[in-house]
Design goal:
- The chain has 105 residues and is mainly alpha-helical.
- The chain has one domain (3-103).
- It has helices spanning 3-11, 16-20, 22-34, 40-44, 78-94, 96-103; strands at 53-56, 73-76.
- It has a two-stranded antiparallel ribbon.
- The radius of gyration is 15 Å and the shape is globular.
- The model has no long low-confidence stretch (mean pLDDT 90).
- Bound molecules: zinc ion (ZN) (2 copies).
């Protein structure tokens, strides 16, 4: 999937299409294999947990050019993934006034 296509999906708020693409599914499998299907966040805390998800370290919406870069991915368990995204949401919400301004265009 090409960058302009990913950018288009972001603009249309339709990233679901990205996550359904073969390019993503292949890369996702590669990331899980590389990380031995173990949650990397739990691993940093000294625990071993099976990973079910693959997380973009730098968010697709902010860094679409990194959406299909293996180095930007890590295997993660559902628990850690939810925690990570709550943390990111808070961070994005704080910056919301800026986004509202941009929406006027
Ligand atoms: Zn975990
Ligand atoms: Zn994620």
């Amino acid at each position: 999937m090409e960058l302009h296509k990913i950018q288009q999906l972001i603009n249309q708020d339709n990233l679901v299409k990205f996550y359904q693409s073969k390019a993503w599914r292949d890369l996702r499998t590669a990331a899980l294999k590389r990380d031995n299907y173990e949650c990397q966040e739990c691993k940093r805390q000294g625990r071993v947990e099976p990973a079910q998800n693959v997380h973009h370290i730098k968010e697709v919406k902010q860094f679409p050019q990194l959406a299909l870069i293996l180095d930007n991915l890590e295997a993660i368990c559902i628990n850690c993934h939810n925690k990570e995204h709550k943390r990111l949401e808070k961070y994005i919400r704080k910056k919301k006034p800026k986004f509202l301004n941009e929406e006027r265009w």
